[in-house]
Amino acid sequence: MLDESLPTFRLKSNRLDKHNETLLFSHYGSEFEPKYSLRHLDPQQHGSKNRYAAALYDSYNSDVLYAEALLIPEWTQPSLSAEQIRLNGGVPPAPQPILPSEFALQLYNPDQQVIVRHKPSKWNQSESWDFELPSRTFRAPSASALDRSQNDPSVSENTPRVGLRWKKDSKLNKDLVCFQSGKALNPDGTKKKHKEPDITIAIFQGQKEVTLYEPNLIRVDIEDIKGLEVVLLLGAVVIRDVYFGEMKNTFNLTEGRKASGSNSTSPRPVLSQVATSPVSPPGVPARDPRIPPTDPRSQWELDAETARLKQQIEAEERQRKKRDEAEERRVKQMLEAEENEARRKQAQIDEETERLKRIYGDQQRPQSHPARRYSSDPRQSQPQPQPIQHHYPAAWGSYNAGPYMSGANAQSSFLTPVPQQNQRLKNKSSIFSFGRRRSEEDGAKLSKKRSAVF
Predict the structure, then answer these.
(1) Pseudo-torsion of CA 139, 141, 142, 143, nearest 10°?
(2) How far apart (Å, rounded) are the C-alpha atoms in residues 243 and 16?
(3) Quick one: CA torsion of 138, 141, 144, 149, rounded to 10 degrees?
(4) Quick one: 227 exposed, middle or buried, by C-beta within 10 A (0-12, 13-18, 19+)?
(5) Looking at the predicted structure, is the pLDDT value of residue 259 above 80?
(6) How many angstroms separate the CA atoms of 297 and 78, rounded?
(7) Which site from 19, 128, 241, 436 is most exposed, i.e. has the minimal number of CB atoms within 10 Å?
(8) Total H helices, total E strands in the chain
(9) Which residues of 384-409 are buried (b: 16+ CB within 10 A; e: fewer)?
């Protein structure tokens, strides 16, 4: 702090939102109290990409907006070198933002726009930022309708303007000093003939504190002192962020993911479904209609993402083909192994068969008797009833049927009864039974001996 008695604003980061800050105010050695709230774009939102914005709100009433600034940088032309495109994975290098030569501060109530122009440093001149403020801002009270129909003095070309300039204090540090560089009365911007000395108005020290040099403020011919204070605070913050900060963080640049064929460990169902369908550029996700049109950087990011997805899909397709070929080879080897195993078992069976033939020889199996053939006539297929034969025992037993008068042999056979044998009776077969052998029929038939007399 330069002097406790001077009005001093200190920037303090917000604990909850790192991208927002609070401007604390102290005067005449008092404690620092919140006075303004400085808000930036949320880097996580899609609408904050590739641009810079800052707004100054009231610290206690968040609906009161004093001023804001929006910077959309210009971009370099993409390189057409084939070598750089090849090294970048088939995509031209990303366009880089160009440091803006000017930016605008929009003030509200009353509405006013202040253009801050950047002048780069030279061998005999340090870097500076020039801007102008009207000496009269508010309209004079009047009951005339003609006066109310006229433009505000802040936008009138006939209103005198006061020239102000932020300038680096030295080349060894980043401190800035704001001077009053003179007045301009002519509409073409030319200044007065006489040159007034520069008057120090504010000092931006350590990029954290803005101190207003109050004794010199009364020499500044500006009606809207509150507007001057807002312009000094917001202008100092924008100069610090844009011209002294990293452009990647300032404009929320996102580096496009490198297109590579390597896939993550976890499979992606969406890419697997896309890989089975014809390759087509992925659709652009739904965007907020309030977002400005696509800038070259966003278009490059879309092209780079499209190229990366195409290469990833092609890599997945190649891996899928490799998996299919490996599976086909595995199935083929499995079938060949099964076929070899079947041939081996068949060879063992043939070898065992030959061994058994050598041991037991080639024995023919007995042929089975052919089945009997029957006529198609159902009456002939039915068995014929056989007559019932009644056998009565002889009264004197059974006698030999030898000759009646045959000597000694005949007598013995006549008087000696022959024991009765159990004769097995067989059913009479059909006349069509030609398949029965004669020997079997003769063995089963009862034969009657003839008498020797008759």
Answers:
(1) 130
(2) 26
(3) 20
(4) buried
(5) no
(6) 10
(7) 436
(8) 10, 14
(9) eeeeeeeeeeeeeeeeeebeeeeeee
For the record, the structure tokens of 209 come out as 């504190």
Q: Select from 226, 167, 171 the least CA-distant residue to 202.
A: 167
Query: Strand 33-40 relative to strand 199-205: parallel, antiparallel, unpaired?
Result: unpaired
> Cβ(113)–Cβ(105) under 8 Å?
yes
- Residue 453's nearest CA partner among 416, 412, 414 is 414
302 contacts 282 by C-beta, under 8 angstroms: no
Contact present, 404 and 410 (Cβ < 8 Å) = yes
Strand partners, 52: 71
- Phi-psi map region of 189: left, alpha, beta (phi>0 left; psi -120 to 50 alpha): left
- Cα(385)–Cα(171) distance, rounded to whole angstroms? 145
Q: Residue 364 phi/psi, 5° resolution? A: -85, 145
Contacts of 7 (CB under 8 A, 6+ apart): 25, 26, 27, 211, 212, 214
Bridge partners (DSSP) of residue 65 are: 57
DSSP 317-339: HHHHHHHHHHHHHHHHHHHHHHH
Q: Environment class of residue 206 by beta-carbon count within 10 Å: exposed (0-12), middle (13-18) or buried (19+)?
A: exposed
Q: CA–CA distance from 170 to each of 121, 173, 177, 235 (Å)?
A: 11, 6, 10, 19
- Interhelix angle 269-276/296-360, rounded to 10 degrees, is 80
pLDDT at 453 over 80: no
Residue 12 has pLDDT above 80, yes or no: yes
- Token couple for 202: 């504010």
pLDDT in tens, 378-425: 444 445 555 555 444 444 444 444 444 444 444 444 444 444 544 454
Peptide bond into 215 cis (omega under 30): no
- Per-state percent for the chain, helix, strand, coil, to nearest 5: 30, 20, 50
Q: Torsion angle, CA of 301/307/310/315, rounded to 10 degrees?
A: -110
